[in-house]
Amino acid sequence: MNDVEYMALAINLAKATTGQTSPNPHVGAVLVKENQIVGIGAHLKAGEPHAEVHAIRMAGEKAGNATLYVTLEPCSHFGKTPPCSNLVIESGIKKVFVASTDPNPLVGGTGIRKMREAGIEVEVGLMEAEATELNKVFFHYINRGLPFVTLKSAISLDGKIATAAGESQWITSEEARKDVHHFRHTHDAILVGVNTVIKDNPSLTTRLEAGGKNPVRVILDTSLRTPVDSRVINDTLAQTIIVTGADAEPATAKQFTDRGIEILTLETSKIMIPDMLTKLAERGITSVYVEGGAEVHGSFLTERAFQQVITYIAPKLLGGKSAPSSFGGEGIAHLEDTVSLEIIEVKQIGQDIRIIAEPV
């Protein structure tokens, strides 16, 4: 194996932890000595040992004079765990390949500098693009102080999310609906509007055959119309946050707080998407999966407050000028003001097509 193959292995180890390390990044590490892998590791959960620690522990004495391949710069500060850069130095590792530097201001190149000052040869940038893609949620959260937002839609071939009579279950196939639960598992929070709760009474949980992480449930509800007997209020399967406006009645809010629901009251009577995202980020939420209706999606589009769009297209035609599309609101008046997207992936899921796109 060569350097690229060892780093590719480290990246694959990190990918396997998708959905379980937040608010920390995904990190993989491979330790090699005399053309043999002597240690591997991945960061499994926030607060637990980092990838480098697992690899070095596995290698034991063989870590001396070995080469370390790690997807993200080893940390240099005391957090919930000791600095990994110190452990790398103490272990006698002679060379380190770092795929990408850490944008966290607590690290920001200091881990690399400490290792170099200790006489370790450090090369930065091997498979950097792949490593950056792996941690795009973490990088966005650290650099912008906001969650990474994904807008998800399920539409017919003619772009409708429901019939003219309002029927929407189910436009897409069972396979596509199962695929949605994978993305719920990999996001910190799932967000809908109050109308979705009133109409569908959803659980908004992750239902994968092998289990999965339930995201925090966020309900946009300006005047606290969420039914007190709805599943998201009573099932205790996941934390629920209701985001409301400044004019919401305190007595009504108490009905929810008495049931353990957090009420996040904004300073404006109308819910402003940027303010809401800032408040979620302050709670350590690094990513939000938006499964709202047309009006919710339209609000995020108006604010340009999203980093990814996932659309499932079913081979069905619904027609009807009054049938809703996936993005409502006032819309964009001029083509020059549209949000240009780059298609990242096109994949068939059952009989449907899944398209993943990101703003250019």
Structure, described:
By secondary structure, the chain is of the alpha/beta class. The chain contains twelve helices and 14 strands. The strands form two sheets. Strands 10-9-8-7-11-6-12-14-13 form a nine-stranded mixed sheet. Helix 3 packs parallel to helix 4. The two termini are 36 Å apart.
Radius of gyration: 23 Å
- List the strand order in the largest sheet: 10-9-8-7-11-6-12-14-13
Class of secondary structure makeup: alpha/beta
Shape: elongated
The run of helices and strands is HEEHEHEHEHHEHEHEHEHEHEHEEE
Strand content: 15-25%
Describe the main β-sheet briefly: 9 strands, mixed
End-to-end CA span: 36 Å
Work out the helix count: 12
Kindly state the mean pLDDT as a whole number?
91
Q: Helicity level, as a percent range?
A: 25-40%
Stretches where pLDDT is under 50 for at least 5 consecutive residues are none
User: How many strand segments?
Assistant: 14
